[in-house]
Amino acid sequence: DAAIASRLRALNILVCAADQPEVSDFITPALVDRDPVVIAIGTEGSAPILARKIKAQVEALLPSALGDVARLARGLRPWVAETLAPGRARRSFWQAFFAAPAPQSPRQAQALAETLLQTGKPSARLSLIGTGSADPELLPLKARRALDEADAVIFEPGLPLPLLELARREAELLPTSALSRSLDEEVQARLAAGQALALVSTQADPRALLAGSQLPQTHLDIIPGLAALTPVQPRQRRFAHHV
């Protein structure tokens, strides 16, 4: 196989030898094909059996009609662009659309879109998130979802960068030290504008950020974090001296 690969490369032909990454110029991953949705699973040639096992697990999770749903969504995009304002309204619509039972035709998809448009309009939401640790792996799942859905993230200075990277790329990121008005006024103004707002503390209990303020009458989530553990001092052993 190595000799054949050498001859082919001399002809400017790329080579893939099954289960032989040292001979190959490229590797073909295991594919889950729900055209136009395609998922590639690769292990850089180190464990092809593992890639196939993961493929089987993913295949079982995804309905066979997923590609049809994606194509219907593509057909609805111009209608949604004309009907809904950019930003959170469209994002909330699509989240609801893909969470619903898969429509079977453009007519059903349009009817579903009309229903979601009437019942699924976004409302202002405030998430008070505590971290308490610089490790993003310790952040609660609820906090991760809140960061992913937030239009704006206001955070205390000193918050580790890996935690901020959990926010959406489109989200506005503002340290409290850069606000042009008080934190209370900033929160109230953004909620009045209908934003989904995440307020992130470096402490495990985030309520101190709005201490003394009246919590807004809106959808409110208080998500505590995990406090960092203090190092345990080793106990001094006492040895009994026997005579």
Describe the protein:
This protein is of the alpha/beta class and 243 residues long. The protein has helices at 2-10, 48-61, 66-83, 88-99, 106-119, 141-149, 161-164, 183-192; strands at residues 30-34, 37-41, 125-130, 152-155, 172-175, 196-201, 219-223. It starts with a helix and ends in a 20-residue tail after the last strand.
Form type: flat
Query: What integer value in Å does the Rg equal?
Result: 26 Å
The poorly predicted ranges are none
Structural class by SSE content: alpha/beta
Strand percentage lies at: 5-15%
Count of helix runs: 8
Number of strands: 7
Order of helices and strands: HEEHHHHEHEHEHEE
Helix content: 25-40%
Mean pLDDT: 83
First-to-last CA distance: 78 Å
Biggest pleated sheet: 5 strands, parallel
Strand arrangement within the widest β-sheet reads: 5-4-6-3-7
Note the topology.
Elements: H1 2-10, E1 30-34, E2 37-41, H2 48-61, H3 66-83, H4 88-99, H5 106-119, E3 125-130, H6 141-149, E4 152-155, H7 161-164, E5 172-175, H8 183-192, E6 196-201, E7 219-223
Parallel strand pairs: 3-6, 3-7, 4-5, 4-6
Antiparallel strand pairs: 1-2
